[in-house]
Amino acid sequence: MDKSEITKKLEKNIESLQQQLRTLRVGRASAALVEDIEVEVYGAKTPLKQVASISIPQHNQIMIQPWDPSNLGAVQSAILKSDIGINPVAEGNAIRLTLPPLTEERRKQLAIETHKYGEEARISVRNTREEAMRHLDSAEEKKEISEDDKFRYREELQKMIDDYNKSINEAIERKEKEIMEQ
Question: Which Pfam families does this UniProt record tie to the protein (predicted)?
Fold first, then answer.
């Protein structure tokens, strides 16, 4: 397992965390909240962003306009089935979603969910680290690297892991601050 492979896994982990955090509804409208909702159209499940235009006319509203007006019902149904907790309102050939202001209780729930996502990301980073450490131990046993090299690689790996954990913590803190400021 080389450094670029480890970096790729860690980057994928950070991207996954950021995607999860974008889907948390914090009172401000964002296309990320709905763009990946699966819509049943033409016999296949398709992400909403591929069947409709998504716009933000106001800070607390999302407007969804299917490119094919016959898909309006399917889009509305998919939004209702999703777990975003917003009722879609059909207006002509478009759907309007109005985000209600967050209650204190909902803010606390979102903060807990944010921390849960962060912990999942840290566990994934830890698993990547353990896998790389096992690989180093194996390489040393097979005499592919010296003991000194193994310890040097471990130090480099630990520094990389620390940097990614710091990125995770910063992302969680930013999201928590965003949640509490609304």
Answer: RRF
* Same fold? 3-22+103-181, 31-98: no
* Domain 31-98 architecture: 2-Layer Sandwich (3.30)
Structure tokens, 28: 């401000």
Q: How far apart are CA 171 and CA 122, in angstroms?
A: 12
pLDDT, tens digit (0-9, with 9 covering 90-100), for 39-57: 999 889 999 999 999 999 9
pLDDT per residue as tens digits for the range 11-33: 999 999 998 888 776 767 888 88
Please, what is the Cα angle at 57 between 53 and 59, to 5 degrees? Answer: 120
Q: For residue 2, what are its two tokens?
A: 């080389």
CA triplet 125, 131, 134: central angle to 5 degrees? 140
% of residues, the chain, pLDDT over 70: 97
Sequence ranges of the domains in the chain: 3-22+103-181, 31-98
Q: Give pTM, 2 decimals.
A: 0.69
Higher model confidence: residue 67 or residue 106?
Answer: 67
Strands (E), the chain: 38-41, 44-47, 52-58, 61-66, 89-91, 94-98
Residue of 172, 88, 128 lying closest to 6 (CA atoms): 128
